[in-house]
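Two records follow; treat each independently.
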Amino acid sequence: MRVLLQDLRHALRQAWKSPGFSLVAIASLALGIGANTAIFSVVNAVLLRPLPYHDPDRLTVILHDGRNPVAGANFLDWQKQNHSFDSMGAAEYWTPNFTGSDNTEKTWALRITSDVLPMLGVEPELGRVFARNEQELGKEHEVVISHRFWQNHFAGSPDVLGRLITLNGETYTVIGVMPREFKFAPFWATKAELWAPLVLNDRANDRGGRSLRIFARLKSNATLKQAQVEMATITARLEQRYPGTNENVVVLPLKEKVVGNVRPALLVLLSAVGFVLLIACANVAHMLLSRSAGRQREIAIRSALGAGNLRIVRQFLTESCVLAVSGGAAGLVLASCGIRVLVALSPHEIPRIDTIGIDTHVLLFTLGITLVAGIVFGLAPAIRATALNLGDSLKEGERGSSEGIRYNRLRSLLVVSEFTFALVLLVGAGLMIRSFLALRAIDPGFNPHGLLSVVVSVSGTKEARLGERSQFYPQLIEQIRNIPGVESASAINHLPLGGDIWGLSFHVEGRPVPRPADTPSATYRVVLPGYFRTMNTTILRGRDITESDDLRAPGVVVINQWMAKRYWPGEDPIGKRITLDDPNNHPAWLTVVGVVKNAVRSEWASPPEEEMFLPYLQSPQYLEDPASHFSYLTLVARTSGDPGALTALVREAVRALDRNVVLSEVQTMDQVVAEATSEPRFYVLLLGAFATVALILAAVGIYGVMSYSVSRRTRDIGIRIALGARTGDVLRLVVGQGAFLALIGVGVGSIIALAVTRLMSGLLYGIGPTDPITFVVVGLLLSGIAVVACYIPARRAAKVDPIVALRYE
C-alpha cells in the first residue's frame, strides 16, 4: 500500500504538471466510457434485466407463427388438453371509454381470463385479483386497476376498493390495485391500465375470430421443447378435425417475445460504442507514448538506481489508470445526461425503455471498462519504458534525427487501428443512413402532409344505440367539412400505419371453393365517402364510394391494386364480385367498383397485401353492433394550413353533436409517419453520432502523431531542405507517410467491415450489408480526412529554416 500510494502521488503530480495533456486525455476517455455506459444501461434494462414477474423464465407465449392471435375455441381446447403447463390464460385488447367525474376518456385495457394475473406471481398493492372461474359466478363486471390509474383518477385514495366506475356505459367494481412497477402485457398492449375478466363461454365453437394472446407457465419438470412438441401434437389433432384453424402454433419464451426484435440493433450499438472506446484508448496511448519520449532520461536514471521493469510498468499503469478513472467519472456524468436524451428520443418499439437508469450493474460495468481501458492504453508506454536502453536511446532519439524504429512501428500500429475501427463504424452508420433514405423514399400511397386524424368513439353514449351511428358520423363529417381551412374530410375504421389490422376471408365468384386452410383473406377497411380524396389516394380504375352506397343499394367494394393484380391478372376487376359469406349458403355478393393505389398498412416497409374497402353505410356490424370495437371510427381531415391548429375546432364540432363522445389519438399524419419510421431514425442518429466521434478522434489522432513526428524530425527535414528538397517534396514526404498509414487502416477496416456488417442485415432496407457505394464513399472520406490532418503539420515542416534546424538539439 505504501508503494501504491507513492505511485498514486507521482501519477497525480504528472497529471497536474500537464493540465492540457490531462484534460484532452480525460475528455477522450469520457466520450468513450460515457457512450458505452449509456448504451449498456439500455442493454441492461431491455435485454439483461429479468421481467418483473415471479420466475419469469418459465413464462411463455403461444401464438400462430409466433406473432398472430388465437381463436377462443382453440384456446379452450389447448387449455384442457395440455400437460406441460401449470396454467394457461388468454388476453384480449380492449379500449373502453371511461366516464370520470368531469369527462369521458379513452382508456387502454385488457380483458383477461382468471389464470393470467395469478400466473405472473405479482401480488396486488391493494385488494385482490380475479378468482378462478368467477366469471361463471356472474362477476365479470369487476376490474383491477394500475397504480397510475389509481393515482390519476382516485388520488391514491385507500378506499378505492369497492368503488364503481363506468366503462362503455357499464358499471364495474374495483377489486384491486396493482403495484407501481407492474406492467402487463410487456409486449403488444403495453399501455394497459385496466384488467377486466374475459368471458369465453360464447366462443366455445368460434375458431375463426382470432383476437386472443395466450400466456402460459411451464411446469417445473417441463422444458420449452417438450411444450412445443406437445402443442404440435394437440394442434395437429385439432387441425385434422377443423382444417385451417390450428396451423403453425409456436411456443415462445415471454422474454424472447418482448426483446427479440430489438436485440440485434442494441448489440450493434453496443459494438459500435466499443469501437469508439478503442479509438479513444488508441488516442490516449499516442499521447502517453509522446510524453514518455520526453521522460527517457527519468526512466534511465530510475533504472540505474535499481528500479526493476515491474516497478516501472506499475508506475506507468498507475498513471494511466488515474487518467482512466478520471475519464470514467466524467463519462458517468455524460452517461447520465445521455440516458435522458436516449429515453426522450427512443421509439416506443423499444420495450422497458422507461426503466433505463444507472444501477449497480451499470456502475460495475463502467468500473470494469474504465480499468480495462486504463490498462489497454497504458500498456504501450509501459512496455516501451521497460524496453528502453540508454545507449540505444542516445543513438536513436536524443539528437532528434530519428525516433527509434520500434517506437515508430508502435505508433503506426495505433494509427492503423484507429482508422480500422473508424471505418467499421462509418460503414455501419453509412449503411443505416442509406437504408433510412430508402425507407423515406417509400411511397405510402397517400399524402400525409396537411392531414389531421382523430379517433372518435361513441361507445357508451346514446350514439351507440341501434340506428344512431348511421346518422352521427355522416353529420360529423359534414360539420368538419364546414370548418374554415378544411378542404375535405372522411373517416375509416383503422387508419393506415396508426390503426389496427383486421383480416376477413373472401371468395371470388366463379372460382372453386378452396379448403378452409387455403381460403384467401384481405385487410378489412370500412370507409365513408370521400376517404380516398381526403387521403390523396389515387383511384386507378372505377369510382369512389358514394353516399348512395347504403343498405338499400347493392353491395359494393373497392380493392387495392395488389388484390386486383393477384386475383384478376390481365383482367379488368371492375364488375367482378366477391363475398365475405359462405359461397354455398345464399351469400351476399359485393361488386368491385374501384381499384386504388397500394398503401402502407401497419408497418412502413411491409410489402403490399390484399386490402378491401367497404362502405360504412353497408356494414351492419358498424351500424348496429354495440361492441366497443365496432363503436369508433378514425376521422381524417385535409387542411390548407397547419392541421394541428384545427384540433380545437374539430373538438368543438364533435361536442356540438354529443359532449359524451370520446376523442383520442389526435395527431397529424406526418406524426404518424414519423412514428412509423422512428426506430430506424433512432438507430441512424446513434450510429451517426458514434461514427462522427470516431472520425474526429481518428483525425485528431493522426494529426497528433504527424505533428509530433514532424517536431522530432526537425533536424532530418532541415538537412533535406538544405540539400535542395523543395516544399512539395517535404509535403509529399509527410503527407505520404500519414496517408499510407490511413490507407492500411482503410484496407484492414474494409475487410473487417465486410464480415461485421453482415450482422446488420436484419436492420437494413433496400441495400445489402456489403453495399459497394457505402464502402467506397467511406473509404474516400477517411482518406480525405487523413490527408487534411497530415497536411497541416506537413506545411509547418515545409517552412523549417535549415539553419535553425541544423542547430536543433
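The next record belongs to a different protein.
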Amino acid sequence: MESNSSLIEHLNTLDTSSLVDRAEKEIINLFVNQGLKVGDALPKEIELAETLGVSRTVVREAMLRLRMVGLIESKKHRGAVLTSPDLIKPLRKSLYPTIMENKTLQDLFEMRMILEVGMADILFEHIQEKDIEELEVIVAKEPVNADNTIFDIETEVAFHGKLYEITGNTILKDFQNMLLPVFQYVHISGLLTSPSESKSFISHRGLVDILKVGNAEVFRNAMRKHLDNHYQRLFLYKKSVG
C-alpha cells in the first residue's frame, strides 16, 4: 500500500496537469479576446501568471505547448510573438508507417485518393503550359498502352506530386509530402496486392491529355478511373480481413 505522501504526490501531478490544460485554453482565449494578430507581441509570463492566478511554472508549460504547435515563437528583443501555426508539423512528427495499424494506413491512403479526385477545379484554375510540359516529361517512360497492371512508385510519386504542386495550395502540397512515406509503405506492405477488377483504368498519359483539352469535370471522372484499381484493391482487402 502506498504511503500518504506518495498519494499526495500523485494528486499534485494530476492537479498541475489540469492547471496547465486550463491555462493553455485561457491564454488562447486571451489572444482571441484581445484581437491579437500574427506578429503581435505577447504578454510576459509573469503578467499571464498574475492574470490567470497561477504560478509561472504553469504558464511556462502552457506556453511551451503553444510553441510546440507553432502558435507562438520567440523573437530577439521582442520576446514571444503570435505566429501562424504549421498545421501539418504535429502530424508529421507522429507519422511512422511501420508502427501504424493497417486500418490507419488504409484510411490515410483513402484520404489521399479523395484529395486527388477533388482537386480537379483547383488544377484547372492554376495549370499553365509549362506544367503540362513537365508532366509530359514525367510520363514519357510510361508505355503507350499502359493498363492497371503497370505501376512504378517513382513515376507515381513524381506525377501526383506535380499535381499537388500545380494547385498552388501550400497545405495540400505539404500534406502530400508528409504522406509520401505512408503511400510507399502501403505499396510494399501487401495491402494492395489483391488483383484489380477495374475495367476503366486511365493512365497518367491519359490524364495529361485531358489536362490539355478537357475540363475539371472530365478530369475529375478520369482521376477516379485512374485510381479505381486502388479502390478495388482496398475494397477487396477489407473484405478479406472482414
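Discussion point: The beta strands are 72-75, 79-82. How would you locate this feature using only the C-alpha cell line?
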